[in-house]
Specification:
By secondary structure, the protein is an all-alpha fold. The chain is 82% helix and 0% strand. It is built from nine helices and no strands. The model has no long low-confidence stretch (mean pLDDT 90).
């Protein structure tokens, strides 16, 4: 019995080490791979944040995508924590508007803020694409890989990793503020609901409303 437990423990340690290496490799290659335009950037994110982790999950770990948050999960907890996260997120943004330089430094591309149709396409196509990539990789692949091992620390680990990622890829801090904020709350939503559906919905709703407010105040 003890031998079986020891084998299981060694197997879990080996899996964790290999998964950590896979995560580091994905982030390293993404950083090293040059991108000249938006299309290439989206392609690189798709490759290293979606395709490679999906292949690793299926071919190496031999697990189901449901184990990584691609499922309905606990919808009650998902909706409750998404709602609470929205309240706290808007409170934080309110404070940032009044007590920081956020309103002066956070801007949207002019062409997307002129007409509603451009704004809608920007949010539903470009912003949602980034959110999907971040949800699948940081909340899905990273967090759910370790959620059984470190439990409530998993949301914090994925958030800290997202901060490191943002720093090394050179994202401008003000322009990336909303993604950083949603990365924190999304982790807890996904952790409680065991699903990426509610964390993604929260992030998209929050960013769309905040961007609309920024455009309104800028006029």
């Amino acid at each position: 019995m003890n031998l079986k437990r020891k084998k299981n423990t060694l197997s879990q340690i080996r899996e964790s080490v290999v998964t950590c290496l896979a995560i580091i490799i994905c982030l390293f290659l993404l950083k090293m791979f040059p991108t000249k335009d938006l299309f290439e950037q989206i392609s690189v994110l798709m490759s290293f944040f979606v395709i490679i982790p999906a292949l690793y999950i299926k071919l190496i770990l031999k697990k189901e995508f449901a184990d990584f948050g691609i499922q309905e999960g606990n919808w009650k907890k998902g909706l409750i924590f998404a709602g609470v996260s929205l309240i706290f997120s808007f409170l934080i943004i309110y404070l940032m508007f009044h007590y920081t330089n956020f309103s002066k430094n956070y801007t949207l591309p002019v062409k997307f803020s002129v007409k509603f149709i451009y704004f809608a396409l920007y949010e539903l196509l470009l912003v949602s694409s980034y959110l999907i990539f971040y949800e699948l990789f940081f909340r899905g692949f990273v967090m759910f890989s370790f959620i059984e091992k470190i439990d409530y620390l998993a949301p914090l680990i994925q958030f800290l990793l997202f901060l490191v990622f943002s720093y090394f890829v050179g994202y401008i801090i003000w322009d990336n503020t909303l993604y950083i904020l949603t990365a924190f709350f999304s982790g807890w939503i996904a952790w409680e609901s065991r699903s990426l559906i509610y964390s993604f919905a929260y992030s998209l709703i929050f960013i769309i409303i905040t961007d609309a407010i920024v455009i309104k105040l800028a006029k």
